[in-house]
Amino acid sequence: MLAQSVGAVVYDYVVKVVDERGEPLVGVNVYTDDYRFADVTDLEGKVVLKDLRYNDIVHFSYLGYQEVSLPFYEIRKRGGIIRMLPQVEELAEIVVVGRRDDAPEDLTWQVEQVDQRDMELTQSQTTADALAANANVFVQKTQMGGGSIVLRGFEANRVLLVVDGVRMNNAIYRNGHLQNAITVDNSMLERMEVIFGPGSLLYGSDALGGVVHFRSKDPKLYFGPDAGGYQAETNVMSRYATANREKTISWNLNYGKQRWGSFTSFRFSDYGDLRAGSVRPPEYPDFGLRKYFVRRVDQGDQVLENGYWKVVGGDSVFVTDYNDQVGTAFHQIDLTQKVKYQPGPNFYLLGNFQFSSTGDVPRYDKLTELGKKGTERDLKFAEWYYGPQKRVLASLKAQLRNGGSVYDRATIIAAYQKIDEDRLKRKLNKEYRTFQLEDVYVYSFTADFDKQAGPGSFAWGVDLQHNIVQS
Q: What does CATH list as the number for 2-83?
């Protein structure tokens, strides 16, 4: 449509405004710089641009969408079709801690957080090592496959371990040192949260010293403009450490669509015998030396000197190597699978499966213990190890918001765990082995509710735990 004006040529032109899916947008504000023309799109997303010159700038503005500004000649080149895209704003990261996903400022206890970047920087081999390197906690280790967390002087069954809102502590958690923290793969963690202080009111009697909450990575959903779009990202990490000849490889994959997403993680680690440093204080020249160890040869125990054979001038020469701490090696495999379904902003479901298994984990302090004679060759134990330690977790978490007069937020978690822990030992030159085999089945249900009431708020909930022990 062409109209003649004094000194210039002006046009009337029909334009249709659509969204990212090609659907018409109703009520889009359309105007020029000087507001000589201003109108809105009709039910079909159309508007007639009237009396516009060739180079007039036309603006298209709609709530929740990126503004579009084009010269009139460009609109004609596009055939009068204007496509608008949703406006995506970068929001500040919201950090929540604990099983109830509370904001740190809402807690009365001191909270220390170790995020993924901290763990990547220190490249800790296990989760217990990552806590010792990054958090204000002490970690006790009697063997390389150990890591008993100490908070405010409390340890073992007086410190509560939680993974993704599910209590790890169970009926066989003892007073002595525990190594259960290493069964959580630190390569799949988003964050570790250390809550100092007695948390028995919210978590139960095991939280006398505090709570260590391991929060694994959740599936990331797709929030882009394409209705059928998705996002996928994968990471692969491999590491070799000379101190214990560690060989680790881990892989994770995130796949997300608009309403559901999946996160998969796999890791395998093989740790060789730890090698001690050669520099020692003059007061303790033998500190950390492993001079003798036991090997089973021809159905009998032999106490061997630590070292290796090498060829020198055509002859075989035995070279002692007391820095090699024989009896510390083990391996571990971890698998995590999470699936998230979120149909709307006020509700989501999260399925979580975790599996961890180690090989035999030697109890190094017992393998170096001397017998009654007290000589270096008089070792007390030929074998002392934790049998394959296995942990299986399956949980379903639901989070709901805006529950009317009952709650503002509800977090419900149902979980099943199976823990297999064995301890086996045999004294030197003895033919029988003593052992303790324990299987624990844990069924748990927690429900936490919050409701804002004027200037204050109420929090209430239910925590049910049922342990079945076979020993």
A: 2.60.40.1120
Say which residue, 202 or 467, is predicted with more confidence. Answer: 467
CA-atom Rg of the chain in angstroms: 32
Q: Which helix (H) or strand (E) holds 339?
A: strand 330-344
Residue type, 209: G
DSSP string for residues in 5-49: ETTEEEEEEEEEEE-TTSPBPTT-EEEETTSSSEEE--TTSEEEE
Please, what's the largest Cα pairwise distance for the chain? 117
Structure tokens at 451: 């409701």
The full set of domain ranges for the chain reads 2-83, 104-273+327-470, 274-325
**Residue range 268-305, pLDDT digits in tens:** 999 999 999 999 999 999 998 999 999 998 889 999 99
Q: In the sheet that 38-40 helps form, which strands lie side by side, from edge to edge?
A: 38-40, 29-32, 57-61, 68-71
Fold of 104-273+327-470: Maltoporin; Chain A (2.40.170)
The beta-strand segments (E) located in 159-291 are 159-163, 166-167, 189-196, 210-216, 231-241, 246-256, 260-271, 274-275
What distance in Å separates the CA atoms of residue 255 and residue 62, rounded to the nearest whole number? 31
Could you tell me if 72 and 60 are in contact, meaning their C-beta atoms sit under 8 angstroms apart?
A: no
Can you read off the two tokens belonging to residue 176?
A: 């002595």
